[in-house]
């Protein structure tokens, strides 16, 4: 009998452990693909909650949220869409905060772009950017070209991706020699130049808890984790500005 009771007690402990483990569905801007995966892995290791990540342009993800997609947390690449989600009642009031500030970089796998703005004035055929209507990094890229007085000069050389990740892929695949992409995405092969912040508006990236996640322990825990030092360390290592670094 005692052995039976011990076995039943063990099963109950296992069952409650499973019951405590939940999952959270996160809509994340394409530029944070790598860091979001790292943050999700660290979060799961600490809490046992699972994270399901869906990536896309900030504007495209917001359109899905507005159409009823069951996302529970929204990691945008701007502050505008989370504010719109709050105003429309799609998100929980007071849950929004800035988790990182992004930086834009000129990137190439075939050219030396460490010379900075001069590389944009050189001889090349295609410059990849994200769609400025959908992606904050695309809007920042347009602002950089305007600041350098290159808008008209480069107008017929632009290759526009639906997201900053697609813009990056245009460069990696050779469909564009240069790309204005998220600094947090570049590394490894190729060269890059981090665009001075004064060349474009700040890329403030906000997170917000959506109504679908309001009562989900995993969603609440993920939002708390995103505010913590473990997530901040991952973001900093990828080139994002966090907290006092802004």
In short:
By secondary structure, the protein is of the alpha/beta class. It has helices spanning 2-20, 33-47, 58-66, 80-87, 117-120, 136-147, 151-154, 164-172, 217-226, 229-237, and strands spanning 23-29, 50-56, 73-75, 97-102, 104-108, 127-130, 158-161, 178-182, 191-194, 203-209.
Overall description:
By secondary structure, this protein is of the alpha/beta class. 40% of the residues lie in helices and 21% in strands. Strands 2-1-3-10-4 form a 5-stranded mixed beta sheet, with helices on both faces. Strands 7-6-8-5-9 form a 5-stranded mixed beta sheet, with helices on both faces. α2 links the parallel β1 and β2. α2 packs across α9 and α2 packs antiparallel against α10. The longest helix is centred in the N-terminal third of the chain and has 19 residues. The radius of gyration is 21 Å and the shape is elongated. The N terminus is likely disordered.
Strand content: 15-25%
Query: Would you tell me the structural class of the helices and strands?
Result: alpha/beta
Mean pLDDT value: 90
Number of strands: 10
Provide a count of the helices: 10
Alpha-carbon distance between the termini?
A: 63 Å
> What is the string of SSEs from the N terminus onward?
HEHEHEHEEHEHHEHEEEHH
User: Would you identify the regions where 5 or more consecutive residues have pLDDT less than 50?
Assistant: 1-19
| Major beta sheet summary | 5 strands, mixed
Q: Mind telling me the C-alpha Rg?
A: 21 Å
- Across the major sheet, the strand order is 2-1-3-10-4
Tell the overall outline: elongated
